[in-house]
Structures
1.
Amino acid sequence: MFNIPKKDAITFVLFAIVVLTMPIWLAPLGASYPGLLQKFAIYALLAVGYNILFGLTGYLSFGHAAFLGVGSYAAVWSFKLLSMNPVLALVFAIFFSGLFALAIGFISLRRSGIYFSILTLAFAQMSYKLAYSVLSPITHGENGLQLTLQDPRAIDMMFIERGSSLPTSSLFGIPMNGYAGFYFCAVILLIGFFIAQKITSSPFGMMLKGIKSNEDRMNYTGFNTKPYMLTAFVISGIYAGVAGGLLSITDPLAGAERMQWTASGELVLMTILGGVGTLVGPVIGAWIIKYFENIFSAFNESVLHNFFAFLPDNFESIVVLISSKFVGEGWHLTLGLMFVLVVVFLPGGIMEGVRRISARFSNRKDPSKGEEVIDPENLPKPDLKKGE
Amino acid sequence: MVKASNNTVLHVADVHKTFGGLHALADVDLAIEEGKTHAIIGPNGAGKSTLLNVIVGKLAPTRGTVVLDGEVLTGKSPHEINQMGVARVFQTPEIFPDLSVFDNVMAPAFAKRDGSFKINIFNSLQSEKDIAQEAEEIIVDFGLEPMINTHAGALSRGHKRRLELAMCLIQKPRILLLDEPTAGMSRHDTNTTIDLLKKIKSTGMTKIIIEHDMHVVFSLADKVSVLAQGRIIAEGSPDEIRANPKVKEAYLGESSE
């Protein structure tokens, strides 16, 4: 069960090192504070799970934010009703997001292509609107679902006295905020990454790739593609649910805005930016977007003045004026341009860039011309027979 | 009406298919015998591909049934029909262009072993030694081993066809349907394909072959049915068909070689 191909094992170890040392290497980038680190781990997990659906099967879901939201609510309800234990909260998140994904997937997967995307989008928007209106008793509408001092917390109350302040989620007495919260999320991310690796290298993963490549052929080859798709959809919905649960564990407040379609759209951007169908790509995409959202957006003119202080004064103010349009409020502009550049020049996302660079280093001897880097794997082999 | 005899594998019984007012197939009755290669010929638009589509479950017949070894195929979906032993090679090769040649051949072997749905997550592809070995053998047999790790989409058309045939044969189907397996091929490649198909024939596999190329038909078929405007107008051995004046008029006359 734990045996994975050697190449995957190396990837996993490297990935684990990168994730666990994030507080160190993100420090020079100004992003090493617990709140953001937690988000890095959580959104990476979300993207890894999304890629199981979009990357492997090619089905583009625009509704994963709904599962993120369901996971968040489920976790907070587990805190309110039972216990502040984060593991129990995750179990709740997995169960309800899985159930939700099963129902939405069952209906949406009756169609493919754009119709599938539209159906998932419709369901997610419906969930979002319902969370604000009809379902307010469960979601507490615009106020968001929060902990209160009067919550039953049935299991916790058997062991401890009701305190005078709001409790925090804790595991073995370690509160799940700050760096401990980050490491909890990081461990879940690593587990999720490992499972995604297992799926990708398994026969099941190959069937999903087969569906993406030629669904008709899968049917004529004797595969019933519907249950394969539904399984992939539910697994990926559960990943989103777990990510939502982790958001609530590190900060026990669930709001409906997490279910809005922009959140789903962001997820699509992350996956495409990093590299659809690769394991590491979506993680990189998630980190870049979260970095931009949190750090780049906080840059202001004084930061830029410091940054460009080495330039002559007049020139500096022009540079600052221009570049200030791209940071702070304008961070979306930078992100958008970056997205356009990636999609136009690197359709395989950032991971394709990485592959091209490594291919160039390994093919140094042959003087390759221009931008074209030939992937030896994709090179059509010369036909041995003449006449074709 | 053709009587299904004891050694009939596939029986197409009185099948009609209409598209709007058009009778694509009318009273089609075919009995495909065990181990035989049955060719279906006919001019363009005669309903040959429609017939194959009805057999594999892509189209539901308006009337009539298709029976494989006493089991009714009609009304079943393509994956069920494949699981019952019907494999098809398409006119334009239907393969998995994004997967390697190796994976292309492994996938059908999994369908054969594990059925139409199985969540097999805990084994890696590498640990499926039996299937990998089976796939490798057939890839070597088909002369595709130099490109075993190539993405199938990058293969030449001739190689794609051969790959598709390998994908079908690894399932050891009860009956193999071939839709113009040499369409668009050079004479040289056509002959290579004929040799390959003769080799398959010697294993005793039952086949239906749709073909335009009379050279292919007469070198492979045990029995020929001629389809014209959705009806079978003649049936017999290749020599009988060659001599049949009705066939000459409907078909051979306009495209004799």
2.
Amino acid sequence: MTAVLDPSPPTAHPGAQRVAQQVAQHRRRRARRVLVVGVVLAVAVVAVFVLTMSVGSSGVAPLDVLRSVVAPGSDPRTDFIVRELRLPRALTSLLVGLALGISGTVFQRLLANPLASPDVLGIASGASAAAVAGLVLGNLGGLALSGAALAGALATSALVYLLAWRQGISGYRFILVGIGIGALMGSVTSYLLSKAEVADARAAFAWLVGSSGMAGTAQIQVLAAAVVVLGPLSGLLGRRLTVLELGDDTARGLGLHVERDRRLLMLVSVVLVALATAAAGPIAFVALMAGPLAARLVAGAGSGIVASACVGALIVLVADLLGQHLLPVTLSTGVVTGLIGAPYLVWLLIATNRSGAGG
Amino acid sequence: MTAEHTLDVLDLHLGYDGPDIVRGLTTAIPPRKVTAIIGANASGKSTLLRGMARLLAPRGGQVLLDGVPVHGMRSVDVARVVGLLPQSPVAPDGITVGDLVARGRYPHQGWFRHWTPQDDLAVGSALAATGTADLVDRHLRDLSGGQRQRVWIAMALAQETDVLLLDEPTTFLDLNFQVEVLDLLTDLNRARGTTVVMVLHDLNLACRYADHVVAMKAGEIVVEGRPGDVIDAAVIADVFDLRCDVLVDPRSGTPMIVPLGRHHAGSRV
């Protein structure tokens, strides 16, 4: 190689400059797609967020909703309806959706399987079992309920991780162990319900269906703090996620601390799913659906975490809107997401079985 | 070209659950040469490569990169010097060639560092070197096996390391693609002085393309050196438990192994 007056580094291959331009174009096209999808989704999330607070027994114009949320004080009656009655519910839907969207896609990509969302892996069941134990045995509420759900989710995920560990983590074994542990946690929940006082059991049942409407202030606040801190963190960790999904060997070759980074990403996701569960109960299938839908929108570019968070938020907000106002009967958020999600899961099982990824 | 990097293996013991697979092995990888590790199945050749690539922690002994134990180094520092192509790498569904090869830049980027023209050039150079530039927008799943392997090599090249470890880079490829991949690695070695270490199954290709062969059996080295100096019928009989003639390749002058089975091996010499 004659590198005397060559401006490129000595490693450059002949023709590399021209190909580098192609690479830059490809990269910019991909980045533009991620940006456009992100902006469109974010606008849609804000629009539905406002819309859910605008409809109801007494309608409030979307602009008045916005004014009341951003700069209250001009109209006390509207402020009361929006801020006291509707904002907590809408905020819960928004935060729960963001949290579930992030945690779902992180697990799915870490384990390289669209089935591997925290609700399938038993982590949401672990959070639920611990929360039901708190409700039934200790009459817990507020921060203590969030704490119980978090402890349950952490213990369950640690158990799944340990049981699935064999010289590393394989997605397939992790999912099978997770489904097993999830079933165990479901049995624990049923046992607790069977032993509970009738009133406690009723409350626990209502909680288990999952609804944005029942979150307490403390649960909303702690979830908001988690989303504000862990959301951007997971975005930053997204690049490691894109390397981790190339498999442990390749990721280690590229300089990742595979175990440390995987545990960190899992920890972030488990905390998010636990606090979301504490706030609104186990809202079904959102974590399962958000990631693959988002990946389709961004055509697989980047880590897809932002898009997945937005899609998760959209699903929960729309489900709550449907369940509260648009369907002839009032349904809990979790029932609506279940109605959408169950057929999707069936389709996913069939599709992954056909391609050999689901087993 | 950057400084010459040395990769040394010192009394290395490696294993999974059971007994040691690599048993007290010591060798020095010749810098800026192509080294082929050969041996029968379960001889420990892939395990040795995995140990050198930090995929396995040593049970005893050390792997030294420029005299420093790699298992004590920061992972990302090693990744700037030593690249790896594992035996069966996995790609997420729907990933494009451009996206995949770009991920080879990971060790050169920080938490907040933006993509630079230098990164584009490294990726472009890797694509050009592997003849995959026209595939940049294509999905990996739509490519042939040979194209796919070239793309994976491109990802390892985009990492711009001076040492490249490859675990059976030609396995599952048709013969024409095997030759293509080995030619490509030779180009790379000659143009950039990259130290190439690979596990190979095909003895004749290993003898032709390697400057240095390491023949392993039962976790230990039987012989190592220039193929023409060290490969003979006795060595092949020992390493592979196979009777053979070793002729001189009429094209390259390197050893050419002609196996002698129980049939079809007697009439012409």
